[in-house]
Design a protein that fits this description.
The protein is an alpha/beta fold and 234 residues long. The protein has 2 domains: 58 residues; 127 residues, Ribonuclease H-like superfamily/Ribonuclease H (Nucleotidyltransferase, domain 5), CATH 3.30.420.10. The protein contains 8 helices and 5 strands, in the order αααβββαβαβααα. α5 links the parallel β4 and β5. The two termini are 14 Å apart.
Length: 234
């Protein structure tokens, strides 16, 4: 049986829904900013409608992108960079653990309240279950990583050193910009959901502009946009 379209029973066209979700997730815009941008294009929707669209379709789009990329990303097992960032939720500190491959692709995002061995172990097992075991794992000198890697039998794969984890540090910047535009998060579940969707969308539109010529960059950008417009197309 053909898969039912997730846009069924929606009066708004799928093209507009995809555009609204892309604008909100990809760029550091608020819901009202996206509402104004759509208004300039002649589309009258409220910011609450855009919030509903992103909550409904964001995870679906991210899941489809992730499924397509995992099938063709055998090189992601070469080298991983692991790092965690601090995120405040209602004044309470939480930790967003992130795994990035050698090309800057965000492989996994995981939110915890603690920053100990148990949290690091849970994060590692989740990432390895989806992407397999890498040849080298680059981390900072947090002892939780060493303890967790020993438990999964990958202690010999760990690499630490000054500046060797800059790949992970740089990958945090798009998320930090997005976090400021959203005026922080209010629930741990919302942070986990948005971090996963944001990572997939960022990966999809990441064209390595600084590493390619202008014609090659334009081709990659057009291909990424065309693929996005075809998500769940009839």
């Amino acid at each position: 049986m053909p898969k039912r379209s997730p846009f069924k029973y929606f009066k708004t066209s799928p093209e507009i829904i995809r555009l609204a979700v892309m604008l909100y997730v990809r760029f550091p815009l608020s819901l009202r900013n996206v509402e104004d941008l759509l208004h300039e294009r002649g589309v009258e929707v409220s910011h609450e409608t855009i919030r509903y669209w992103w909550n409904r379709f964001g995870p679906l789009f991210a899941s489809e992108i992730r499924k397509r990329r995992i099938e063709g990303m055998r090189s992601s097992r070469w080298r991983w960079h692991l790092d965690e960032i601090f995120v405040k939720i209602n004044g309470e500190m939480h930790y967003l653990w992130r795994a990035v491959d050698h090309e800057g692709e965000v492989l996994e995002s995981f939110v915890t309240k603690a920053r100990d061995r148990k949290a690091a172990l849970k994060f590692l097992r989740k990432a390895m279950r989806k992407h397999g075991k890498p040849e080298t794992i680059v981390t900072d000198k947090l002892r939780s990583y060493r303890a967790a890697l020993k438990e999964v039998g990958a202690g010999f794969r760990q690499e630490t050193g000054r500046w060797v984890n800059n790949r992970a540090e740089n990958s945090h910047l798009p998320f930090r910009q997005r976090e400021r535009a959203m005026l922080r998060f209010r629930r741990m579940r919302s942070l986990q959901k948005f971090a996963s969707v944001h990572a997939s969308v960022t990966n999809h539109f990441n064209t390595d502009r600084s590493l390619s010529s202008r014609p090659h960059f334009k081709l990659n950008r057009t291909a990424a946009l065309d693929e996005w417009r075809c998500l769940f197309a009839a």
